[in-house]
Design brief:
The chain is mainly α. The chain has 3 domains: 73 residues, Winged helix-like DNA-binding domain superfamily/Winged helix DNA-binding domain (Arc Repressor Mutant, subunit A, Orthogonal Bundle), CATH 1.10.10.10; 47 residues; 53 residues. 73% of the residues lie in helices and 0% in strands. It has 10 helices and no strands. The protein is rod-shaped. The termini are far apart.
Length: 183
C-alpha cells in the first residue's frame, strides 16, 4: 500500500478492518496506481482525454477508476482538450506543416470535439495563412527535389502538397506562382 493511500484511509497498526474498509482502501490504491500511470504518460507529452483514456483502458484499468483519474486531472488543470488542440496544432505546423483538412482530421482522431478543433485550426491559420504555409512547404520541397523547371518536379510538389492536406485551390495557386518559390 502506498503511503498516500495509507494516510487517506486513516488506518493504523493493529486496526481491525471490515470488508467495506478493505474494499475502500483497495479502491483508493487502484486510483493511486492509475493516477501514477497517467502522470507518467503526461510527463512524456501532453495528451487528449481520449488518448489518455484509451491508454489506461489498454492497461486494463477499470472504467470507474479511469473516470475518477480523468476528473481529478481535469480539476488540477493537467488535462484540457481545448489547450491540447491549440498546442498540438501549433506544434504540428512548426514540425510538419499541413493543410487545415489534415490538421482537423488528426485532431478528430485524438478525440477532440469539433468546437475545439475549429478554434485551434482557425487560430493557427490566423497567425499565418494556409496559403503561406503551403508556399513554404512547396519551396522547401522544390529545393529538395532539384530540377526546378522540370514538369515532373511540378507534379511531385503538387502531389506532395495534396498529401499534406492542402486544398486543391491552394495547390493550384502555388503552382501558378511556381517561379516565386525560388525566392
Amino acid at each position: 500500500m502506498h503511503q498516500d493511500v495509507l494516510l487517506k484511509s486513516g488506518i493504523s497498526k493493529g486496526d481491525q478492518l471490515s470488508e467495506e474498509q478493505i474494499e475502500a482502501i483497495t479502491a483508493l490504491e487502484d486510483v493511486h496506481r492509475a493516477k501514477q500511470k497517467a502522470y507518467k504518460l503526461l510527463a512524456v507529452r501532453a495528451r487528449s482525454e481520449k488518448e489518455l483514456r484509451d491508454r489506461l483502458v489498454r492497461d486494463q484499468i477499470p472504467e470507474k477508476v479511469i473516470d475518477t483519474v480523468i476528473n481529478d486531472l481535469k480539476t488540477l488543470g493537467m488535462l484540457n482538450d481545448q489547450e491540447f488542440a491549440l498546442m498540438f496544432a501549433r506544434s504540428r505546423m512548426i514540425t510538419r506543416p499541413e493543410g487545415a483538412f489534415l490538421l482537423r482530421r488528426e485532431l478528430y482522431e485524438k478525440g477532440i470535439n469539433k468546437a475545439f478543433i475549429d478554434t485551434a485550426v482557425d487560430q493557427v491559420f490566423a497567425e499565418k495563412s494556409e496559403t503561406d504555409w503551403a508556399f513554404e512547404v512547396a519551396a522547401k520541397r522544390k529545393r529538395q527535389i532539384g530540377h526546378p523547371d522540370d514538369i515532373k518536379t511540378r507534379k511531385k510538389v503538387s502531389d506532395f502538397l495534396q498529401r499534406r492536406g492542402f486544398h486543391w485551390d491552394i495547390v493550384r495557386e502555388i503552382m501558378d506562382r511556381w517561379n516565386e518559390l525560388d525566392n
